[in-house]
Amino acid sequence: MTIDPAAPPPRPPGRPRSREADEAILAAALDLLIERGGGATSIEQIARRAGVTRATVYRRFPNLTGLLVRAIEWEYRNTTPEALSWPDVPAMVRDWARHLSEPRSRRLVRRLYGTVDDLPELLRAYDAAYGSHRGRAVRNTLEHASAAGELPLHCDPETLQLVLSGAALQHLAAYPDTTAAQDVEAYFLAVLRQVGFPSPPPAHSTPPRRSTSR
């Protein structure tokens, strides 16, 4: 059976539930995960932020990990294949730039990768809800570009995907969360030029300076 990430979690027998309470709890859990990290987030904090009791939270979610997993699925509930389909590599890069210029998205991804040892369920939930779909879309775009002769003959789409993914993680770690989309785009186009992709930098853009401040 396929579970719809957009749907609220199954309801045990008892009183009818409020959809507003469900969404308030999920939103509070996600906000606290971004602000404090999984290890510093508790059911009590989530209940307080959502404006409900701890009992209300526990009636919906058996434990903190299950709640955080559900919050991640809820965050990416609107992901569709159409939203992750690009006509060419420049369009893909522009979409990456838009995504990596959103401070909240950047902080969430850093938090998720930071839980890989202590709460690996969270990164797995992200991959199932969003990351794996995006990865397939990137691979399809690069393979199409290779077949169309847009990539140099020596360029392997699979290896290039690894290079771009590493560049994305480097940008998340080393550049400010306030970096503009056009500068993120210039960053990825600079990486692509190193493998021979014939794409000029965006107009009116200056190369961003690396910084550890956010």
Concise summary:
The chain has 214 residues and is mainly α. It contains nine helices and no strands. It is elongated and about 60 Å long.
Count of individual helical segments: 9
pLDDT averaged over residues = 87
Unreliably modeled segments? 11-16
Radius of gyration: 20 Å
Question: What is the helix/strand order?
Answer: HHHHHHHHH
Strand content: under 5%
Q: For the record, what CATH class of the largest domain applies?
A: Mainly Alpha
Number of domains: 2
Find the CATH topology of the largest domain. Tetracycline Repressor, domain 2
Q: Bin the helical content.
A: 55-70%
Structural class: mainly alpha
User: How far apart lie the N and C ends?
Assistant: 42 Å
CATH superfamily placement of the largest domain: Tetracycline Repressor, domain 2
C-alpha geometry? elongated
Going by CATH, the architecture of the largest domain would be Orthogonal Bundle
Biggest pleated-sheet summary: none
The count of strands amounts to: 0
